Prior knowledge:
Oligomer: single chain
Radius of gyration: 20 Å
Shape: elongated
Structural class: mainly beta
Strand content: 25-35%
Number of helices: 3
Amino acid sequence: xxxxxxxxxxxxxxxxxxxxxxxxxxxxxxxxxxxxxxxxxxxxxxxxxxxxxxxxxxxxxxxxxxxxxxxxxxxxxxxxxxxxxxxxxxxxxxxxxxxxxxxxxxxxxxxxxxxxxxxxxxxxxxxxxxxxxxxxxxxxxxxxxxxxxxxxxxxxxxxxxxxxxxxxxxxxxxxxxxxxxxxxxxxxxxxxxxxxxxxxxxxxxxxxxxxxxxxxxxxxxxxxxxxxxxxxxxxxxxxxxxxxxxxxxxxxxxxxxxxxxxxxxxxxxxxxxxxxxxxxxxxxx
Length: 285
């Protein structure tokens, strides 16, 4: 039994292994996947001395708890949450030493949705197509964490950061997404496009790693029917038959037949990862 591993004591609502994704395989029907809040994942890795591309744990709302078999440096970023080591409160957003056999408990998010747990050396599950990311749509990568699972750790690379706490943007109280119209904006009426960019929407509870679904005014189509399948990118805003815009995120499909009327700037997508259900959404040209 190797000491370079950790056991999952509490998996939480949904905890997955994520790195920066498997780029370059869309022609095979494989999404990029990767951490939804990539800046938070990179920061967590930097705090513990990992390369920015190392695999971390992405939790959803309720956190998780793990028990490393060796002493390890850990850091939790993204959605603010209580962090404890063997019941003792420790810092969120800063490197923390976790002794071998101690319980690292990452609590429920007090704001936002997804927290990121970096462990020194990174989560060392087997890479698939160059990435260790769990892809919920295709099923590639390791399965979501389950209670009792044991996952390997890589070798620690270097010293951790020397900070008391690292500044991080707060989860959004209003989600403002900058968009560029196209490529199929003509499939909606001009009034619908005005509705998209002037009216308020809300984040739907049906949102997930595949896409951020919205609640609000339906967009009226100028052209009925479906398109032949076309390529999709992260941030694409697709209009399904119910007319409520869907913003595609990391685990999105690579093709689709509903019209994409606009695309969100990539720099804004991290905030979509942290928007809780009910958060107001504005699409801004």
